[in-house]
Write a structure and sequence with these properties.
- The chain is α+β, with helices and mostly antiparallel strands and 397 residues long.
- It folds into three domains: 158 residues, 2-Layer Sandwich (Beta-Lactamase), CATH 3.30.450; 76 residues, Helix Hairpins (Orthogonal Bundle), CATH 1.10.287.130; 143 residues, Heat Shock Protein 90.
- It has ten helices and 13 strands.
- The chain has a six-stranded antiparallel β-sheet.
- A hairpin with a 5-residue loop joins strand 5 and strand 6.
- Helix 2 runs antiparallel to helix 5, helix 6 crosses helix 10 and helix 8 runs antiparallel to helix 10.
């Protein structure tokens, strides 16, 4: 080789080398034409590189070897895009005075262009021999053109395979990063947060002055908020980077878990009215903590975006083996354009600058609904906005 190959050219040579049919193809070329040397060449504006070679005449060129592109007829084919076939150089009116045959010592020559499926010129399939041969006939040219098309198809197939393998490696790396990310959230962030929470509980049991008590309460609220954010981001990671939320289902009464969520939000928003009607007398087959999380997100959303002077209603019923859970609030209707993307991550129902959270609550609620084989829908009118979750109440997944 006259000089080292660039990454792109080296990849082209390697791609041709991976095509299992190439050695047999070059053998067929030599046997059917009587030529002693055949090659697949990568031809660019300034390089002629042998990608695959069959050499029965000791021409001396091996895969990866180069010729000066200006000295080759393949360079002319790169410009014209048409095949060249010479039966006998000494008797050919055009090529008997051409410098290339004299330089490389051949009397018969054939070369056809190889175009990628998109039409880009790749190189040539060529053959030479020091003896004359009958090449300039439709049968031989047709065979070379067919082989050139076959090589082009194999090139595309190999490149697609290489791209797929690269994508698979990227997916594996992404999976490793996903697991590391979830591990960091689940362990490295939760542990110090739990320590802070435990510390504030200890402090609340000790005598505090009037200034310290509100500070402790503020820290505890911040801890709860950070815990919710970590839960949201972990669920986002599982839903978008992993295979979806993993449920732990069993058949149990769902009502008490929902009532506990309502009680907690009443305690954190004592100025708001939350009307609840929970009628779930039969066991429900579900992941109770996840359904409680769904209600918590919907109810927190209603308290944040609903009218401050209007009540929020929560209804949960079991009708014909279908659980229906709805959260309704008054206030400005959600614009139709916003509704279309409301269940996407990092989306909020309104553009208030003082909103807390990452805009993941409704996305996670919809993922919980989907994981349970249910649906989460929203209707919004000037009178009220209602989020309704429905899911099967019975049966195994």
């Amino acid at each position: 080789m006259s000089e080292s190959l660039s990454d792109g050219l080296a990849a082209d040579v390697a791609t041709v080398a991976r095509i299992q049919a190439v050695p047999k193809l070059l053998e067929v070329v030599c046997r059917t034409t009587g030529m002693g040397f055949a090659a697949i060449a990568r031809v660019t504006e300034d390089r002629w590189i042998a990608c695959a070679v069959r050499d029965d005449i000791e021409f001396g060129l091996k895969p990866g070897g180069e010729l000066e592109v200006e000295t080759t007829i393949c360079n002319e084919i790169r410009h014209s895009g048409t095949p060249v076939a010479i039966d006998h150089v000494a008797e050919d009116e055009i090529y008997r005075v051409h410098p290339t045959p004299a330089m490389y010592g051949f009397q018969s020559y054939i070369s056809v262009p190889i175009f990628r499926p998109g039409g880009e010129f790749f190189g040539t399939l060529c053959a030479i021999d020091p003896r004359p041969a009958r090449l300039n006939k439709s049968e031989t040219l047709g065979m070379f053109k067919l082989f050139a098309e076959l090589i082009a198809l194999h090139l595309e197939s190999q490149e697609r395979l290489a791209a797929s393998e690269a994508a698979l490696m990227d997916e594996r790396k992404t999976a490793e990063l996903r697991e590391q990310f979830i591990a960091v959230l689940g362990h490295d962030l939760r542990n110090p947060l739990a320590s802070i929470d435990a510390g504030t509980r200890v402090l609340r049991r000790t005598p505090l002055d009037t200034r310290a008590a509100p500070v402790i309460e503020l820290i505890q609220k911040s801890v709860r908020r950070m815990a919710r954010l970590i839960d949201d981001v972990m669920d986002l990671a599982r839903a978008r980077l992993g295979g979806g939320l993993v449920l732990n289902r069993d058949a149990a009464l769902l009502g008490p878990a929902l009532e506990q969520v309502i009680a907690e939000l009443r305690a954190t928003s004592p100025e708001r009215t939350i009307d609840a009607r929970i009628t779930l007398p039969e066991p429900v087959y579900c992941d109770q903590p996840r359904i409680a999380r769904l209600l918590s997100n919907l109810l927190a959303n209603a308290l944040t975006h609903g009218a401050a002077d209007g009540p929020v209603s929560v209804t949960a019923t079991d009708n014909d083996a279908v659980v229906e859970l709805s959260v309704t609030n008054r206030g400005e209707p959600i614009p139709p354009a916003t509704i279309q993307r409301l269940f996407q991550p990092f989306t909020r129902a309104s553009a208030r600058s003082n909103q807390e959270g990452l805009g993941l609550g409704l996305f996670i609620a919809s993922e919980i609904a989907r994981a349970h084989g249910g649906t989460l829908d929203v209707t919004s009118t000037p009178a009220e906005t209602c989020f309704k979750f429905t899911m099967p109440a019975k049966g195994q997944p």
